């Protein structure tokens, strides 16, 4: 894990975060799911713990780092509570070497300083199953912290992580049934029962953001039996150097105007005509 952490720091200018592949592919039991805010906080915790995240020790982070652009801490307790109580379902090998599923919490415990000051600290300890998964993993997704924080849709964060895990592979594809897609995305139970709604509010909403900010393009293909969609294949295609550089530049820009830049709706201010400039100069002189 230390080696996985060093690579994005050297290549990504210190903004890289590594997340074990098993955690990227984790699903949520009983229809539970992490909100977009909780997913982002988990990435921030992994970034803070860095290459030592697998160790049995306590880490700390300021409330200012966790709350980001939000001024108050009122949302922070709810997000941390959500992260602490939500269980992950992770594919592992059993003690006798068989395919198995481990269900575990992300955090074992946390301690918060009572002050609302941005420099007050939150201490936390990852759960033992989480630490063992990170310690044993041999494949990691290299995430860019600023990219994760830039996404608005919770499904954009999830699919961005999936893409970062796969887009450098020879076959950069995720595939599964509709039920497996729901589990991977963490779609709450009972929501988007129709494929049209599921596609519109998850894949299509995420594609708009990912194609704008990620180093890859998101596409998918539907496989049907008759009129019913049975299986979906999602592909993460690497961008060329110019497109990747533009995505990186957009991440560094202000969030203000991002949607307009994405849709091409930004207005360009025309140059001032010479006669208008002369009249303005005359008026300034009185």
TrEMBL record:
InterPro entries: Initiator_Rep_WH1, WH-like_DNA-bd_sf, WH_DNA-bd_sf. It comes from the Bacteria. Residues 17-161 form the Initiator Rep protein WH1 domain. Pfam families: Rep3_C, Rep3_N. Belongs to the initiator RepB protein family. This is Replication initiation protein. It comes from Paracraurococcus lichenis.
